[in-house]
Amino acid sequence: MRAPSRTSVLATELYALKIGISFALDASLVPLVIELDSLLAVNMVNCDEECLAAKGGLVDRVRRLLNHVIVSVSHISRQANKAAHRIARFSLREQSLSCWLDEGPLWLMDAVYDDRSETSVSG
User: Fold this and answer.
1) pLDDT tens sequence across 107-116
2) Which residue, among 71, 73, 89, 85, has the nearest Cα to 118 in the 3D structure?
3) Do 70 and 40 belong to one domain?
4) 102 in the Ramachandran plot: left (φ > 0), alpha (ψ -120 to 50) or beta?
5) What is the gyration radius of the CA atoms in the chain, in angstroms?
6) pTM as predicted
7) Does 105 lie in the same domain as 70?
8) 9-26 and 39-46 helices cross at what angle (nearest 10)?
9) Coil, strand or helix: which one is 40?
């Protein structure tokens, strides 16, 4: 399922987060550790106060999903999140839903390895 066109980057991040959490819940892939390179999205979903921003409805849906799982939502630098960037670029070309379990395609696994290396150096 593709995100609606003409959406902001923040709305796209929140929408992808909602879809990812829903998938993890349906597949019983819990507990979750979620890392986003959007500090604004992390702050919005982690905040306990009502979200009055234009994306408040989407934030509320994400928060409701998060209430069903043990989860950590944290910020990670964009340099340590190459895999997410490659998946986003892939999804712009691909019309169908893709899911990889255990191991993904080589172009993705290279980015995952780079991300792990970047995280261990900076963390």
Assistant:
1) 889 888 888 7
2) 85
3) yes
4) left
5) 15
6) 0.72
7) no
8) 60
9) helix
Beta strands in the chain (DSSP E): 32-36, 71-75
Q: Are residues 10 and 69 in the same domain?
A: yes
Q: Which residue has the higher pLDDT, 39 or 81?
A: 39
Question: Six-digit token pair at 5?
Answer: 């066109």
- Give me the domain span that covers residue 96: 83-123
Interval 18-55: pLDDT, tens: 998 999 999 998 898 898 888 999 999 998 888 877 77
| Tokens read off for 119 | 């995280």
Torsion of CA 77, 81, 84, 88, to 10 degrees: 60
The number of domains in the chain is: 2
Residue 3 in contact with residue 14, Cβ under 8 Å? no
Please give the sequence-ordered ranges of beta strands (E in DSSP) within 49-106, or none if there are none.
71-75
